[in-house]
Design a protein that fits this description.
By secondary structure, this protein is of the alpha/beta class. It is built from 27 helices and 15 strands. The protein folds into 3 domains: 9-145, no CATH class; 203-465, no CATH class; 478-676, no CATH class. α17 runs antiparallel to α24. It comes from Streptomyces capoamus.
Length: 779
């Protein structure tokens, strides 16, 4: 997490730009807008402002060989990270234009035409008075050119030994008292210092180095029968490593070595020695003084490899989150016992040092009623959970010797860090005096990052972070929530937002999209003796679909191709060309006047007065006519076998195109409409998080540089800790917080806000506990 506020305070004070002067913008928004416009004016003066968001999102890579430009874009993206979308950025620009000219450093140029999404996409800006405002522009340029500092964590003192504190047990909902004994901690809490800069050097691994490393590993492990991994020299001899030579445009069969400078993607068949090569390479790199991060698919793999490297004399430390620590420990020990069955392990397992689930303060707890069930790991009073009589927060004074935090204490002197993709991207780097996650931390200290079993790691990333959502489903779904939330906003305000033209437009497209969802489902569910709707359901169930993909499928049917599988290359190319000529314009410009073959059938699809039988006849006639024109008699004959399916496919493609275009218009307008609502939109809290670009970057690296599709959705109303997320919850991520916000205005309204929050939370938790107590646990 970067510190992106405060850089403008001196400028604000010097030029008299106060918060009241720039309303309705926040002061930070005002300076963010001018910072971005300065970048555009300096480097892309002739481009419209919406190009900036395309560059920051990496959809456009300007000057790909310019490292300085890449650095500026990266820093600007960090500084503007609060904007979750380009539409919100355009909304801030609109508010900026309304401010008095004496405050603004930029003037808006006359618009050069219109774009599909509206006038703003073609807007350009120029500096208003470069000479008079030189100081302001110099500051903006300096901010873009210097590193963005990491945010400093809140400094919390350790509790004093010998004092009594309390903490909350979330399982029971009650406060517990802990009397910390007097003692002296023999060691200090260690931390990793942040680097302000570093020079990277390539990691060179030659065949001789790898052979020597493998032989040494076998010699050391010969006296360790408890370590199942061995025979590394024999494994290495079986590996046929052939690096790619760009100069020769082929693989080298007799390589002189491997130099890792940037990204290297290794590919091999199952059991071809990829993991063995990674382990040997890690050991060889450590012996040459490098620090290596090894990313593995699971926590059990991390613990097993930790035991291996520890047995080899390498300082290895596993990194994994604390939210599921007990589950990870249980799974690891089940695996260890299964490996040694029927006997118990006879040698101490060094990995056991890192899976402890014992809190050192456990013996000193005093729970209400004398009942003291074991604390869940997430309730251990480690950081900022111990409270004194004045509700001041403290850290546990035993962190430096705590077995739960042993890995953190050994991180600074470790040569190998072993982690999972989840921990790398989600877990905070606690030993660092800054707010950053492990993915950012390894960039400061690691020389080499190796991703083993990249396909499994990629699957894990997809399962954890690929954000997708079911459009409509029984019992409530993404679209249902959108409709309900928008309608509740109107009801709560007496429809007052409709006085604003943008709100009216938003609700008009919302109604259009809702109609298209219902018409799409009608095509999917209506009784059909010919089986067309059943075939359509099966077709859509197999993969993601859109108006683009469904009209492509229809073009293939009109050319005599089957809906699944590939046909002759010539026919496939003709079908694709037919789609581009006749359907593509409608798919991407749905609200423009319809042209081409669709012009004859769209009025029938939109006519509610037509009977089902009449509509079927007209659609069938249209399909047969255009199949004959597109693919000739043979295509017309083949279409006859798929005619019921093609009839429903045309309807689905049409309604899906309108649904997608309507929602995109809604998404564009939404940021301008949100301030008019009294009920918060059910928005996606995850899409604006700064780690989303990190997910995309890691996915691209693992897939050999190919872009990855990320589907943004609304997460379920569950506390973030249920997803192993340490960030604070908001009303959009926790139903408890949303209910607290709704209740705090009704409970003790005359008291301060903190007391109202506390009272609302007490009511909610008391209700939840009553439900749990009255639940029939036998069912």
């Amino acid at each position: 997490m970067r510190e992106v506020t405060g850089w403008y305070e001196d400028l604000s004070e010097a030029e008299g730009i106060s918060q009241d002067a720039v309303r309705p913008l926040q002061k930070r928004e005002f300076f963010d807008v001018e910072l971005a416009l300065t970048f555009m004016a300096d480097h892309f003066p002739d481009e419209p402002v919406d190009c900036l968001w395309s560059m920051l999102s990496r959809y456009i890579v300007p000057r790909p060989d310019d490292a300085v430009m890449a650095g500026r874009l990266h820093r600007l993206g960090l500084l503007l990270g609060r904007y979750g979308s380009g539409s919100r950025w355009l909304r801030s620009l609109g508010e900026y234009d309304k401010l008095p000219e004496r405050l603004r450093a930029f003037r808006r140029l006359p618009t050069r035409g219109r774009s599909e999404d509206g006038e703003a996409a073609a807007v350009r800006y120029r500096m208003r008075d470069p000479a008079a405002l030189a100081t302001r522009f110099e500051l903006y340029r300096a901010v873009i050119d210097r590193p963005v500092p990491y945010a400093s964590p809140r400094v919390t003192r350790a509790a004093e030994p010998g004092e009594v504190h309390r903490f909350t047990n979330s399982f029971t909902g009650s406060d517990e008292v802990v009397a910390i004994p007097k003692f002296e901690v023999p060691v200090e809490l260690r931390s990793l210092p942040l680097l302000t800069s570093r020079r990277r050097r390539p990691v060179r691994l030659t065949p001789r180095m790898l052979r020597q490393a493998a032989q040494r590993m076998d010699r050391v492990l010969a006296s360790r029968p408890d370590i199942p991994e061995r025979n590394f020299a024999g494994r290495l001899r079986k590996v046929a490593f052939q690096p790619w030579s760009p100069e020769m445009s082929r693989f080298r069969t007799k390589p002189t070595g491997c130099s890792v400078r940037g990204l290297v993607h290794g590919i091999g068949l199952p059991n071809s020695g990829k993991t063995s090569y990674a382990l040997i390479g890690t050991y060889a790199a450590v012996r040459r003084g490098h620090t290596v991060v090894l990313v593995l698919p699971s926590v059990s793999d991390c613990l097993q490899k930790t035991a291996l490297f520890r047995a080899l004399g390498v300082k290895a430390v596993p990194i994994f989150g604390t939210g599921s620590r007990f589950t990870h420990a249980s799974g690891y020990w089940r695996g260890v016992l299964a490996d040694h069955a029927p006997a118990f392990p006879s040698v101490a397992d060094v990995a056991a040092d890192y899976v402890s689930c014992n809190c050192l303060l456990e013996p000193f707890r005093d729970a209400p009623g004398g009942k003291r069930p074991p604390l869940p790991v997430k309730d251990f009073p480690c950081r900022e959970k111990l409270l004194d009589a004045d509700d001041k927060q403290y850290n546990c004074p035993l962190l430096a010797i705590c077995p739960v935090h042993r890995a953190e204490q050994e991180m600074a002197g470790a040569d190998v860090w072993l982690t999972t993709p989840q921990a790398l991207l989600v877990s905070w780097a606690q030993p660092v005096h800054a707010r950053l996650r492990w993915l950012e931390a390894v960039q400061h200290w690691a020389d080499l990052l190796i991703v083993d079993e990249a396909d499994k790691v990629q699957q894990t990333l997809d399962d954890e972070f690929l954000q997708s959502q079911v459009l409509v489903a029984q019992g409530g779904s993404w679209w249902d929530q959108e409709v309900i939330t928008a309608q509740n906003s109107l009801r709560a305000t007496g429809r007052r937002p409709l006085e604003d033209r943008r709100a009216m437009e938003y609700y008009r497209f919302k109604g259009k999209a809702d109609d298209e969802v219902n018409l799409l489902y009608n095509a999917l569910l209506e009784p059909d003796k010919d089986g067309g709707s059943a075939r359509l359901r099966k077709h859509l169930h197999e993969t993601y679909f859109s108006g683009h993909s469904l009209f492509n499928d229809l073009a293939r049917l009109l050319h005599g191709l089957s809906p699944n599988g590939e046909g002759p290359q010539e026919q496939e190319e003709k079908a694709l060309e037919y789609y581009r000529k006749n359907f593509e314009t409608f798919v991407f410009h749905t609200f423009d006047p319809v042209t081409g073959p669709l012009q004859a059938i769209v009025p029938d699809l939109e006519n509610p007065a037509l009977s089902e039988e009449e509509l079927r006849k007209r659609v069938d006639a249209w399909l047969i006519e255009h199949a004959s024109a597109a693919g000739g008699p043979e295509a017309e004959r083949k279409l006859g076998r798929y005619l019921p399916f093609a009839r429903h496919l045309l309807r689905a493609a049409y309604h899906t195109s309108l649904l997608g275009s309507s929602y995109l218009r809604m998404a564009t307008i939404r940021p301008a409409v949100e301030p008019l609502q009294v009920i918060e939109f059910h928005t996606n809290a995850r899409c604006a998080r700064p780690r989303t670009p990190m997910w995309q970057t890691i996915c691209r690296c693992i897939r050999g540089g190919q872009p990855v599709e990320v589907y943004f959705c609304d997460p379920a109303f569950a506390p973030r800790h249920a997803r192993n997320d340490t960030a604070a919850d908001t009303a959009n991520t926790s139903i408890l917080l949303a209910m607290e916000r709704a209740l705090r205005g009704k409970i003790r309204p005359s008291e301060p806000l903190d007391e109202r929050d506390r009272a609302a939370a007490e009511v909610l938790y008391e209700l939840m506990l009553q439900c749990l107590e009255n639940m029939d646990w036998e069912q």
